[in-house]
Amino acid sequence: MALAEKDIKEIEELFEKLGSMTLEEQRAKAPEMLKKLSPEQIEFIKQQQGGGQCPFCGIAKGEIPAKKVYEDSNFIAVLDINPGNPGHVIFLPKEHIAVLPQLSDDLTAKAFVLVKKLSGAVFDATNAQGVNILQNNGAVAGQTVPHLHIHIIPRFDDDKVRIEWDPLKLTEEQFEEMQKRISEKTKDFGKKVYDVSGNLVEEKENKKEEKKPEKKEDAPRIRRRRA
Ligand code: 5GP
Ligand code: ZN
């Protein structure tokens, strides 16, 4: 996409300013600063940041061949080229979005319904005994393609898929500290709507009564390791 010299200069200045800030400051100020850019400038940045060469954008546009199993105007699902098991599907939004928190609430709701249906389709088609829904955000979490995607992996007894971690022993204080810190972040759920860039686009009045926490604190135990 060709941008006017002055539009590119504006982008460079913005990134220079962001570069001189701390991470905290960037987080606080970036949404406001990005709002000043035109849609063409935003698109230009996305292309610069890898949207242009992204393999999943290529798949979404039909420029990179893939074994498609589902498509609509927002999403596409294809067979993973390095499957954990035959029938391993990756489901992705066509728009170049890096990680899940950037997906709008509306598309997230649609995506989850489709992933549910796809997991049933994969389960039936492969005669699987189970299915994993897996979604990695960030390289440290195992994300190798920086375009949001959700894995749907059919599972079979004695297959070679491994999803596991060594359970940590936390103190009561450590659990409580985490509960406090995460609850602080979730208290506005339902009241605020953000767009894909993390900008606040709507603030709803909170008419619903806050749900009281359940008395029982322990979540049902899940089996974390395969024997
Ligand atoms: P991640 O590790 O990022 O969660 O998963 C990326 C997945 O995308 C990997 O399982 C990898 O095999 C798959 N993958 C990477 N490039 C391509 C490609 O060009 N086509 C298809 N179909 N899958 C890909
Ligand atoms: Zn992409």
What would a concise description of this structure say?
The chain is an alpha+beta fold. The chain contains six helices and seven strands; from the N terminus they run H-H-H-H-E-E-E-H-E-E-H-E-E.
List the helices and strands and how they pair.
Elements: H1 5-19, H2 23-35, H3 39-51, H4 55-60, E1 68-71, E2 75-79, E3 89-93, H5 105-126, E4 130-134, E5 150-155, H6 172-186, E6 192-194, E7 200-203
Antiparallel strand pairs: 1-2, 2-3, 3-5, 4-5, 6-7
The structure holds guanosine-5'-monophosphate and zinc ion.
Zinc ion (ZN) binds at residues 51, 54, 56-57, 96, 147.
Query: Between the first and last Cα atoms, what is the distance in angstroms?
Result: 53 Å
Tell me the structural class.
alpha+beta
H/E element string? HHHHEEEHEEHEE
CATH topology of the largest domain: HIT family, subunit A
| H/I helix tally | 6
User: How many strand units?
Assistant: 7
Largest sheet: 5 strands, antiparallel
Architecture of the largest domain, CATH level 2? 2-Layer Sandwich
Q: Helix content range of the residues, please?
A: 25-40%
Q: What are the low-pLDDT stretches, counting only 5+ consecutive residues below 50?
A: none
What small molecules are bound in this structure? guanosine-5'-monophosphate, zinc ion
User: Outline, from the CA principal axes?
Assistant: globular
What percentage of the residues does DSSP assign to strands (E)?
5-15%
Provide the spatial order of strands within the biggest beta sheet. 1-2-3-5-4
The CATH superfamily of the largest domain appears as: HIT-like
Query: What Rg is obtained from the alpha carbons, in whole angstroms?
Result: 21 Å
CATH class of the largest domain: Alpha Beta
